[in-house]
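Narrative of activities, Objective 1.

The group set out to show that a structural description can be obtained from nothing but a protein's sequence at a throughput compatible with the screening campaign. Below is one input-output pair from the validation batch, recorded exactly as produced.
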Amino acid sequence: MPKPDTVRERLEKMGTTFKPVPRALGNERVIQAEENKPFTPSKVMQQKIEKVIRVIEGYHAKMNNDSESYLALFYDLKKTEKEFIDLLKEAEQRKLNIPSPFIRRIEAIRAKINDKPLYQRSF
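Output recorded for this entry:
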């Protein structure tokens, strides 16, 4: 029966094996350029709004899949929707320069929140 390796021997074996990591082709310059851009108030606000949108979409997906905690998710969804509306009001008051495709996405979500009764919403 072979003698089992000690922890030290296994770690030494792991340390000597080298696994090359493939490099991304052509993306290095794009990543560096994005990292060097300064954060502007509009970009920070856009990131906050995107985060809230992802949370809202996540709640809708969870509500469709999990019927046991539907009410808890519903109340969390309402809080998040209120936060979304408050962020939009803040962005409008500050008159930030947000790109038009993102504004169209925001307006579509705002219309779904404000216009439709709850039982008719579909995200």
